Amino acid sequence: MIRDVRSLPHTVWLLAAISLVNDAASDMIYPLVPLYLASVLMAGPKALGLIEGLAEAASSLLKLFAGVLADRSGRTRAWVVAGYGLAGFARPLIGLATSWPGVLACRFADRIGKGLRSAPRDALIGLSVEPRQRGLAFGFHRAMDNLGAVIGPLAAAALLAAGVELRTVFLLSIVPALLVLVLALKVPEPERAPLPSKAPMRWTLAGMPPAFRRYLFALGLFTLGNSSNMFLLLRANELGAGATRTTLMWALFSFVAAVLSTPLSALSDRRGRADTLAMAWFAYALAYLAIGFLPSADWALWLAFAGYGVVTAALEGTEKALVADLVPRERSGTAFGWYNLVAGILLLPASLLFGWLWSALSPGAAFAFGSACALLAAVLLKTWVARAPADS
């Protein structure tokens, strides 16, 4: 496995390093946002659902836009630099917000930056490796992303333990964000020809393989139950974990995902994308049920967060590798734009619905709904997407 990872192209390594540092900056503050909203700004689950839903929905629309234009121009580097730069400077401003609409504005700008960079970056990874290495490459990239998500919360926990205020922790996230911008400027352009200048821009799924469209439908159903991870942190806080333990639980989740993302995503290179992903979605359903119905923040909650890390490790890289397998090379940016659009646009209704179920019924009802969506999506992936004829 180590030899295989070392054989990955320089571009993949560079993008992995960027993701590591970027997520360290992002996850210094990500686990603290629900706590900041609840304890400082006095906002609850409904406000959290609105903030995350709107921010992710805007990000998703931009992912398609950036992916289509990257295919048309044959250029991805500018989108990567602009996206990481905008997000890096927006996140620290949360520490200056005095109301939840201010947090919404900062999260909105942060997600716009993610929208600009995601599809071109994913297309760049897919274009840089052979098909037999796609699971490995995307898994390694996600591993470094999750490793950054370990470093960030640990840094935040250390700062909080030292008596640093929440607002100051947000502001300090500018330091790794500056390093991200420097690294992004070193990303090379992939070797591919742009689409003919007279060719019309394709914003729709017209011309995409039927198997890819079926996959997007199953992914959409899974995403409808896959609300913002901030609800997991809110759940831990509600069970009595507190700011420091909640942050450390998030670090545990990220550490497990970082360690296992490369081998579990690479497993799809040998066992098949659909089989690996269906198992991951089924395990996700079990993990959501466990977190939703735990009675207290004891050892079982730590175990549940670790289990959720295993699930995340298996599905993140595999989902993207399957996209690259299903579409032609010249439309990879558009395909990843659609993948990210579907995976993100439904976060608005998913987060709003999750917040409503939580407030109107119970946290258990909200997590049970998410579990049911994941289970049905796994069944569709196995019985409809993977088994349907290629030309249907």
Automatic annotation (TrEMBL):
The source's superkingdom equals: Bacteria
Ranges for domain Major facilitator superfamily (MFS) profile: 11-389
Answer whether the UniProt record assigns the keyword Membrane to this protein: yes
Any Pfam family hit: MFS_1
Which InterPro entries does the entry mention?
Answer: MFS, MFS_dom, MFS_trans_sf
CDD domains recorded: MFS_MJ1317_like
Query: Which terms are listed as keywords in the entry?
Result: Membrane, Transmembrane, Transmembrane helix
Signal peptide boundaries: none
Under what name is this protein listed? Answer: MFS transporter
Q: Does the keyword Transmembrane apply?
A: yes
What residues form the membrane-spanning segments?
143-163, 169-188, 215-236, 248-267, 274-293, 336-358, 364-385
